[in-house]
Amino acid sequence: MAEGGDRTEQTNPARPLDPIDRDILRILQTDGRASIRSVAERVHVSRANAYARINRLIDDGVIRGFSARVNHERAGQGASAYITLKIVQNTWRTVREQLQALPGAAHIALVSGDFDVLLLVHTPDNRTLRELVLTRLQSIPEVLSTHTLLVFEETDLDPGPGPVAPPDVEPLQ
């Protein structure tokens, strides 16, 4: 799966998506295993057209990859937390590389506000989470401070039907 900073996203300007592209994305977000035939039938295009569109979305960096939605607790990762980090100015790239290497790191974002980085981690238990925060994170020289927010329950949101089409555009059935 391509990462958020790959070359395609940096060099190619964003191409506007038409309603068929947006429908294809919604289908694949809901079911990444949907067949080309199924996608083509649902958006009312030929299989060749659906195949070409999906490949273009991948080549353009719109689709970064395909993955399974995991129930972390059932997968032995019963402790989850969002961890905010304050880091030394201009060290984002260095810190990001170190955070990517952490076991259980699921999402890393450079953000604005009272802290610099938001990190989502999944670990087997609270003891492992504690070790990750107190030993691994706080030993990174560029990390000035951390704040841990335990996740008690989480819900993945389905992409849903998407935005309502403007009045002059007929929605796809």
How does this structure look, described?
The protein is of the alpha+beta class and 173 residues long. The protein has 6 helices and 4 strands. It has helices at 7-11, 19-30, 36-43, 47-59, 92-100, 126-136; strands at residues 79-87, 105-110, 117-123, 143-151. A 4-stranded antiparallel β-sheet has the order 2-3-1-4. The longest helix is centred in the N-terminal third of the chain and has 13 residues, at 47-59.
Q: Would you summarize the structure shown here?
A:
With 173 residues, the chain is α+β, with helices and mostly antiparallel strands.
Strand and helix map with partners:
Layout: H1 7-11, H2 19-30, H3 36-43, H4 47-59, E1 79-87, H5 92-100, E2 105-110, E3 117-123, H6 126-136, E4 143-151
Antiparallel strand pairs: 1-3, 1-4, 2-3
Average pLDDT works out at 87
Strand order of the largest sheet: 2-3-1-4
Task: Spell the H/E element sequence.
Answer: HHHHEHEEHE
* Computed structural class: alpha+beta
Distance between the termini: 31 Å
Largest sheet: 4 strands, antiparallel
- Label the overall shape: elongated
Low-confidence stretches: 1-9, 164-173
Give helix % range: 25-40%
Give the strand tally.
4
Radius of gyration from the alpha-carbon trace, in angstroms = 20 Å
| Number of helices, counting only DSSP H or I runs of 4 residues or more | 6
Strand content: 15-25%
Features of this protein?
173 residues, alpha+beta, four-stranded antiparallel β-sheet, 4 strands, 18% strand, elongated, disordered N terminus
